[in-house]
UniProtKB/TrEMBL annotation:
A single GO cellular-component term on record: membrane
Subcellular localization, as worded in the UniProt entry: Membrane
Its membrane topology: Multi-pass membrane protein
TM segment ranges: 12-29, 49-69, 81-97, 141-162, 233-251, 257-274
Keyword terms: Membrane, Transmembrane, Transmembrane helix, Transport
GO molecular function, one term: transmembrane transporter activity
Protein name, per record: Transport protein
InterPro entries: MFS (IPR011701), MFS_trans_sf (IPR036259)
Pfam hit, one: MFS_1
SUPFAM superfamilies: MFS general substrate transporter
Amino acid sequence: MNRKPELSFWRIWNMCFGFLGIQFGFALQNANVSRILQTLGASVDQIPILWIAAPLTGLLVQPIIGHYSDRTWTRLGRRRPYFLAGAVLSTLALLVMPNAPLLWVAAVTLWMMDASFNVSMEPFRAFVADQLPVQQRAAGYAMQTFFIGVGAVVASILPWLLAQLGFDNTAARGMVPETVRYSFYAGAAVLLLSMLWTVANSREYPPQRLAAFADSTPLTETPIDARKARRSGALWALAGVALAVLIHVFALKPEVYLLAAGVLAYGLALLWLARR
């Protein structure tokens, strides 16, 4: 049977190296964005609604990117174009966030940042299955986990480390400290360079060859039951609208509207898929 050849340790290293940058960005976001939002005037009560919006963005972006990356074939392959696009957008978001002049700019940047991280991250998981034979996939995912851990630890201690090197860890009211700003600049550089390293030092199988491997996922797709999708989509969309009405009637906290928006968006996505 035609099976994928095993890859060397360094080829697996190269194809997973971009995960270092992705986790660098996630760690900086998780550790410092609340501080930036408060610096720009967000109250403690406002921060949860801003944070809910970002994971909700990721929840919607991941399945969409996964769907399209399975069906994208370019000169760069089908996964690497998303690595590159996500890296560029993530880098821009990391540069903008510590310099956001207004709260709403920081909030939009947070959404863009989370969406951009997911544009790169979701195809990365499928990249392992595309490139490695079954017996090496555990090693591939373990390598990704290694880079996740390294990126999380280094990025999380970076502001503290910069403070030890003499950078200011405090700032005037309404200003982001040097330690945070330079941490985001460093994170942008690490993310972009690590992703470019993976894009430049990895190769993808062309579709005909990938389809010929016995351990590959078939490149066919199960047709969507349009009638069932329309019915489910309409029910989810109506549930989202009904939830929004209940939130308004009972004067619940504004952040709960995001839950209603997520339910509505899921329903609209199903309706959109039913039309394809």
